[in-house]
TrEMBL record, chains A, B, C:
PANTHER family for this protein: SLR1512 PROTEIN (PTHR40400:SF1)
Protein name: Sodium-dependent bicarbonate transport family permease
Keyword set includes Membrane: yes
Record keywords, A-Z: Membrane, Transmembrane, Transmembrane helix
TM stretches of this protein: 20-38, 45-65, 71-93, 105-125, 137-155, 195-213, 225-244, 256-277, 320-342
Domain of life: Bacteria
Pfam families registered for this protein in UniProt: Sbt_1
């Protein structure tokens, strides 16, 4: 009982912290019909600067890191991404009233990672002076790409199977790989397309400059100081967006509401488990375990939906966008204090 | 004589301060035909961050404020807003050649508050180390909403009266309140619409997060340090805008030019008077009196015009936009040093 | 031999510095087909803030500068601008397969100055604690305007001459100077048009506020601290842009490729020579000589192309935009370490 009271207290005090306060504020504004908006170009720029910051700090950390300590969490992150998608394929995609294609697309988006949620978790750990591996940002693409590729491959394979049965034809997304068709070519197309997405590009650019260059001066004079403030703007946008997208869920099966509300917590536990293994094998820090759980709990709000739209044009975007942006993302962000409290009570922080 | 020389010296030295220098620079650029422009999305974002900052600091101050000291200035601010509109209704709206509807709309915009002008005044007081009540930002909506609601109600009532006489029909703006018509329903519609405007929304969001959350860390690392710089950008835009809008005044009666030039000074005196009463009753600070005078002197450049356009579609927007943005706002900003000097010579700073 | 090894080492270590690292990163992103982009309105704002910063610091420096020390480098900067255009007119514009009009336009753009390149060089000198005259930013317009006016005048005169011979007609750009035609009126039109361009306007506004106002507080709290970070964003954009524009060069004569690759180095030597003269005459600093060489090496990416398009509509913009943005600008930025090394080895830093 004491355990849960402690967790509840931690969560409540976190709600007042800037990150969650701005998220809730954005939801409230949208609910009250405010006409306040963050212009699209500014929003894109804010996201880019945040991702460059996360990438730069990861790159700078990788430069002086022992590569072995990086490889284990990276593989576990990828495994968690695949596991989340397989779980979604075995549950949501088989639900009555849910089209298998829509279910797989949603599972993929929930398996992918939200850079904003990750950034929010980092800001919260920083505020509490909880340390974590500097290279954490570099784990993001492993989980993200693994989940997206798995989901799209499974959706395509099942569609191809039912098409063979019914005699229909299937268009393969990613386009123009010509002779190199099949699962291998398709996976490669998805991989390339995902790496070229703005979110992953910005992150990888930051990592590359951090590893190969010496960006410390600009990192400390610009990217680091602006991080919290720009994150508060991003949370505002995500809160407004989440509220606006909730209505889209009315158009699809109720299964998505249930999935959007519970999946982040179950996925977070998968990430927490992966983090515990890394903790045993390589001494991965408690803060790192929190961030791995948050990555797994989060669903991709920036790069996921456009990737799905391009690769699985037959899937109904109202399902995965509504479930992830409307429910999955706010639930994931609001659950961050839960993972902090859970790690604190188990392996310590 | 010495009194006026002192005031003149203060005003001149203020012209060199960043705030006024950028305003004058913007006017000069526009006058010389420069093609420099601050893109609209960036401008909106700059305004939003400035208003969030003003709101956050007000909210943080309210959290530890004695509510009684807040109530008196708030009521006086609302009273000043109403008084300014009534004065405009008795002068400008009855002028020969001025349509009563246009005159009331202009009086409403001049009674409403310019957040940018308020921010400029705060920056000037900060630069001189003159202290003022932290909750001042929370007074803004009281004066703003009181003035807009009064002006729209009076304009609608007078239009309804002349329509009854002439047998015409009047469309009621704000739309869709159905059965709950009449002055009460109309006032409620205007109030809701004004509170949903981007400017007031941002301000109230900042106040809410400041009161209910603990945003101090992000306030000190982002909103506070960027305030002066973003204000200099805003002043640049307002200077260019003021010059561009001056030409619109040629299309309307000369009364608007006279009103735009003199009203800010008379309204500032009304605000100064309200501030003196608050000073007597609750020990309201000299800096607070300056800011109340500036609020009263200012005219709404962001939220006012769109509110008027929605509520009084029959009014000629060239009149109120030209008079407020072209003349009222620059005169109000340039008069800030006057209020500083006036308070310094009377109750002291 | 040792001399060249030293220069090579300096250049290589500069590649890791933030400025060049972000430029190379942007080129790499574009080469790999990333969909990352900096939205246009944000890009415009970033450029404006950088130019205001350069202008403000120049203006603040001019306020306390001995005007004589400013006049000599200013005249030498203008002379370098004219010399670069005359050189281009004698080489590129007479090349076989190059239209004289296109060649002159390209020479003009290469004679004009890139504010971004200048800002990058300043950031590099700051990072190495190499001092330079504060008023350097004020030299920019002298070289820029001198080069653009010379190029447009020469192009117009040669077109008028061939038109007289062939009996055709020529439209004079800049428009509407009516009776005041001829070279004098044309030069005045170009001058006014150039001064009204966003880049030069922002720079001159900063200088004016720096000289006439007291913007030190906002300069130190906003423009100075954000400079490096915004520059890294700008370099990213310029890298992506450079890669994208390289393809345009395929459409025009190969002469442009040769010119784009070699001209920045030759022009830099011209600027270096002008700097040496100023060093002898007025004790102009080594850092100042570096910046004069960089200005001369750079080609105008912001204000030049639109000026040319307006003044010489007959010229093929693929030639000057491709040669300057695709080759000239990256070569100029990458050559900054060369000028630092060269000055270090000659007059010292």
């Amino acid at each position: 009982m004491d355990f849960f009271t402690d967790i509840a207290t931690t969560i409540l005090s976190q709600m007042q912290k800037p990150t969650l306060a701005f998220l809730l504020g954005g939801m409230m504004l949208a609910a009250l019909g405010s006409r306040l908006e963050v212009p699209q170009p500014v929003y894109k720029f804010v996201v880019m600067v945040l991702l460059l910051k996360v990438g730069l700090s990861a790159g700078i950390a990788i430069r002086s890191a022992d590569l072995a300590t990086l490889v284990v969490p990276a593989l576990l992150a990828a495994a968690a991404g695949v596991a989340i998608v397989l779980l979604g394929g075995a549950t949501l995609a088989r639900w009555r009233g849910v089209a298998p294609m829509d279910g797989m697309a949603t599972a993929g988006v929930f398996g992918a990672v939200s850079a904003s949620t990750l950034a929010a978790a980092m800001a919260m750990l920083d505020a509490e002076n909880i340390s974590y591996e500097g290279f954490i940002g570099a784990l993001y693409p492993f989980m993200d790409v693994a989940a997206l590729v798995t989901a799209i491959l499974l959706a395509r394979l099942s569609a191809a199977r039912s098409a063979t049965t019914s005699g229909g034809t299937v268009t393969v997304g990613g386009g123009g790989s010509g002779g190199m068709s099949g699962a291998g070519g398709m996976a490669r197309d998805i991989l390339v397309d995902t790496l070229r997405s703005p979110a992953i590009s910005a992150l990888l650019l930051g990592i590359a400059i951090g590893v190969l260059g010496r960006p410390e001066s600009v990192y400390q004079s610009f990217y680091e100081p602006l991080f919290r403030g720009l994150l508060s703007i991003l949370m505002l946008v995500m809160g407004m967006e989440a509220w606006a997208r909730l209505s889209e869920l009315r158009k699809v099966a109720h299964a998505y509401v249930l999935y959007g509300l519970t999946a982040p917590l179950i996925h977070g536990l998968i990430g927490f488990g992966a983090g515990l293994i890394a903790h045993q094998l390589t001494g991965f820090s408690g803060g790192g375990v929190v961030l791995l759980a948050v990555m797994a709990a989060s669903s991709s709000d920036i790069s996921g939906p456009p990737t799905m739209r391009a690769a699985l044009p037959e899937a109904n975007s109202a399902s995965y966008v509504g479930a992830s942006t409307g429910l999955g993302t706010p639930v994931a962000i609001l659950s961050i204090p839960l993972w902090i409290a859970l790690v604190e009570r188990t392996i310590g922080l």
